[in-house]
Amino acid sequence: MAINTLEEKMVHGLGDIYDAEHQFLEMMQEALPQANSDTVKSLLQQHIAETEQQISTLKQVFEALGKKAKRVSCQGAAGIVAENQKTLKQVSKKPALADLAIAGGSSKVEHYEIACYRSLITGAQQMGQNQIALLLQQNLQQEEQTAQKIEQSTPTLFQKAMAQAASA
Predict the structure, then answer these.
(1) What is the rounded distance in angstroms from the CA atom of residue 142 to the CA atom of residue 119?
(2) CA-closest candidate to residue 29, choices 85, 80, 76
(3) How far is CA 102 from CA 68, 89, 160, in A?
(4) Residue 168 pLDDT > 90
(5) Which pTM value belongs to this model?
(6) What pLDDT, in 10s, does the model give residues 38-90?
(7) H or E stretch including 114?
(8) Are 150 and 40 in contact (CB under 8 A)?
């Protein structure tokens, strides 16, 4: 479908992140049973709950535009999900590496989402859609906070993986 107007571009971008959030939610739900450390389990559980809320917020954005929430196939998200699934399979026999892979994959997800939300917020602001910009800002703030938590936990996860490798 051709995109001919700013509103069509906004709706397409919203459908794209709406699909991405669904794909990432499924990815995290699949990764949760493979998580070993309490830190990674906790991060995943929190991120799953936040993602469910973000999907709900996106539905509100669609409603504010007078549109029905509709997923637009997000190939970027599909690529991140496929890469994460592949990596997790390759490290599944090493618990500390699996946790590190989950955290690394989650970090990629967060930064992808941050870029999407920042672009959508800029578009909404430029179009005078302040209510939509505020709703999207809520999602962006959660994504930024989650990215920070992952980044703060990563050095410890690396240390655990190095200790596991040294004892093998």
Answers:
(1) 16
(2) 85
(3) 33, 11, 14
(4) no
(5) 0.93
(6) 999 999 999 999 999 999 999 999 999 999 999 999 999 999 999 999 999 99
(7) helix 95-126
(8) no
**Residues written for the chain:** 168
What domains sit in the chain, N to C, each tagged with a CATH number? 6-167 (1.20.1260.10)
| Residue 7 token pair | 């509103």
Distance of CA 28 to the CA centre of its chain: 9
Instruction: Count, in order, helices (H) and strands (E) of the chain.
Output: 5, 0
Closest of 89, 90, 102, 93 to residue 40, by C-alpha: 102
Choose among 135, 145, 7: nearest CA to 59.
135
Residue 90 near residue 31, CB atoms below 8 Å:
no
Cα gap 139→117, rounded to integer Å? 8
pLDDT at 102: 94
Distance between CA atoms of residues 40 and 30, nearest Å: 13
Calpha distance 72→80 (Å, rounded):
16
To 5 degrees, how large is the angle CA 137–CA 143–CA 149? 140
The tokens describing 89, both together, are 């399979």
Gap between the Cα atoms of 157 and 155, Å rounded: 5
Q: How far apart are CA 3 and CA 113, in angstroms?
A: 22
How many whole angstroms separate alpha carbon 25 and alpha carbon 16? Answer: 14
